[in-house]
Amino acid sequence: DDEKDLKPRPPIVTVMGHVDHGKTSLLDAIRNTNITDGEAGGITQHIGASEIVINDKIITFLDTPGHEAFTSMRSRGAQVTDIAILVVAADDGIMPQTIEAINHARAAEVPIIVAINKIDKQNANVDRVKQELAEQGLLTEDWGGSTISVEVSALKRIGIDELLEMVLLVAELEELKANPNRLAVGTIIEARLDKGRGPVATVLIAKGTLNKGDFVLTGTSYGKIRAMVNSKGRRITTATPSTPVEITGLSEVPEAGEILYSVEDEKMAKDLAEKRRQKIKDESNKGTARVSLEDLFS
Ligand code: GTP
Ligand code: NA
Ligand code: MG
């Protein structure tokens, strides 16, 4: 894309951290909802996407599961993100999945904002958390470093405004842009088979605009977009960069992490999906690595 085609786009912020440190609760506090109450055992099983408007500015948030079985999903989360919020429970400190999250954010070269959560708890120890962060190379600003940290309580809704201010500040410095006027490219962040609607996938738009009726291809799945629903559950007909959108109309359930492409027509979508399916078959016969969809376009 030419520089002149690039337009500002909302930041994509991924909330990461150890299991039960309060990632979903923090998003609940930001959204004023209670997703955690509805979760089986309070454990996040998928990457939830939501859009929040603050002072007329949109922020796209991705929740991630903290359970260690979800390492690969978390690493994908880091790849689609612009900013990572690292949630650390003040009563628990840095734990194995906290370090994993730090490593993912570093590998993706995205800025980290630390949310020191659960400061309402009797046994909260903020200084200990800052000490442990320093040991990981994240020296907070008040300790003479450059890591932004905010002390919060998701439960008591303390520090939420300050955290959002920091997110907007960091986002502004990133000068995030994308070309909305082209065929859409996005990432599948979650997908499932719905009894009534068939394959349903949540796509995070990276560039271009996705329209209802577009022909798309993702992995070996393809189709014409039948309907699009935004993160608030409302039907929409177009989705611009940084927008998470649930789509229906795919031929099969794609894998999370796959890239989705809009293409000119249905034949192209079908042919490319078939070509990829064949290539994966050939490669797996040879025992070699997975095939990238980009290979087919080059
Ligand atoms: P996973 O998705 O399973 O990794 O957990 P999570 O990081 O999303 O944590 P979750 O929001 O499910 O919160 C875990 C537990 O901590 C719940 O019982 C919350 O009520 C509690 N909790 C979260 N934030 C706070 C807080 O600020 N203060 C207190 N006291 N409890 C909190
Ligand atoms: Na939890
Ligand atoms: Mg959660």
Keywords for this structure?
298 residues, alpha+beta, 6-stranded mixed sheet, 8 helices, 17 strands, binds guanosine-5'-triphosphate, binds sodium ion, binds magnesium ion, Translation initiation factor IF-2
Description of the molecule:
The protein has 298 residues and is α+β, with helices and mostly antiparallel strands. It contains eight helices and 17 strands. The chain has helices at residues 23-31, 35-38, 71-79, 96-107, 126-135, 160-174, 266-286, 293-297; strands at residues 7-8, 12-17, 49-54, 57-63, 83-89, 112-117, 148-151, 177-178, 185-194, 198-207, 210-211, 215-218, 221-229, 235-236, 238-239, 244-250, 259-263. The longest helix has 21 residues, at 266-286. The model has no long low-confidence stretch (mean pLDDT 89). Guanosine-5'-triphosphate binds at residues 17, 19-25, 36, 42-44, 65-67, 117-118, 120-121, 153-155. It is found in: Cytoplasm. Keywords: Cytoplasm, GTP-binding, Initiation factor, Nucleotide-binding, Protein biosynthesis. Belongs to the TRAFAC class translation factor GTPase superfamily. Classic translation factor GTPase family. IF-2 subfamily. GO terms for molecular function: GTP binding; GTPase activity; translation initiation factor activity.
